[in-house]
Amino acid sequence: MDGGEEVLWVEKYRPGRLEDMVDQEAAREALEGMLPNIPHLLLHGPPGTGKTTAALAVARRLFGESWRENTLELNASDERGLAAVRERVREFARSLPSGGAPFRLVVMDEADNMTGDAQQALRRMMEVHSGTARFILIANYVSRIIEPIQSRCAVVRFSPLPREAVEARLSQIAAAEGVSLDSGALEALWEASGGDLRRAINALQAASSISKKVTAETIYKAMGKASPSVLRAVLHELIMGDFNRGVAELRRLIKDESVDPLDVIGFAHYDLLSSYSSYKLPEHLKPQLIYLLSSSHYRIIRGSDSLIQLLGLSSKIRSLISSSVAGSEPSV
Ligand SMILES: Nc1ncnc2c1ncn2[C@@H]1O[C@H](COP(=O)(O)OP(=O)(O)O)[C@@H](O)[C@H]1O
Ligand SMILES: [Mg+2]
Predict the structure, then answer these.
(1) How far is the CA of 332 from the centre of ligand 2 (A)?
(2) CATH classification of 228-326, choosing from 3.30.420.40, 1.20.272.10, 3.40.50.300, 3.30.1340.30?
(3) pTM given for the model
């Protein structure tokens, strides 16, 4: 590190205002409509789609400059237990907001990670302090929030971000940082992040520290993933081509490039069995392949040497496929 401040782009480019967020029109409109006298809120939806960003934007709208003093941010999963949460909320909700607002704000992230009992206690806190505090609960899965909390909150849903919105935002950030992105890089960011804008921005920042010209290769490298084209080639060598060359290449990926062995299995699953597969394997082989893939997956998770597992898996798949080709089963 050069001693300079490492600013995280996810924070640097977190929109401060609801109107500056991408997509999420329905959620933003719902929140706008309730401001300033908001009820308790439950924001839910997939990770990296703007829930925390929206909660903090609401805080800014309510309290202006003094939003930090008037907002208590808690995370349900990393607190030292419920008693500590209760005490902090009690302490916080006791003093009145500065700047004339009628209540203070408690933002409780990952509320769906709380047990049912803890959620009951949270519900009581919401009631006890409703005179002086509003709660914004954030969750990935609304179904994991107990009904009595849901019924006390205005429930606001955040949708998965569409690809155009993610790509537009990433392009904007890249331009602001003087980083060039080719279309393969945008594709890789979308694929590797699964629509989670936080992951995508983090990957973009990591890749741009390798090179200001960001490509699909640097994205996968920054994320510790092998690119699909590399995995496809290795897999093909191992099960159809030059086995020894496949072994050497796989060893290099796992040992030297720290590719996650489970990513290799995930990719093999996709490349052999999905409807996009170019192998067009006969249907009767598929259950056996799934069984082989899942057993190796399981053994790797249980701590077996992953390279040995992957090599054993490849040779089984190889003989399965070659005996089926040699045998009388028609492939179409
Ligand atoms: N709708 C959005 N508009 C603009 N940026 C977003 C949006 N959603 C996520 N981001 C970016 O991703 C980061 C993580 O978003 P956050 O709101 O914390 O996600 P979560 O839904 O997991 O709470 C933010 O700092 C911001 O940079
Ligand atoms: Mg969040």
Answers:
(1) 48
(2) 1.20.272.10
(3) 0.81
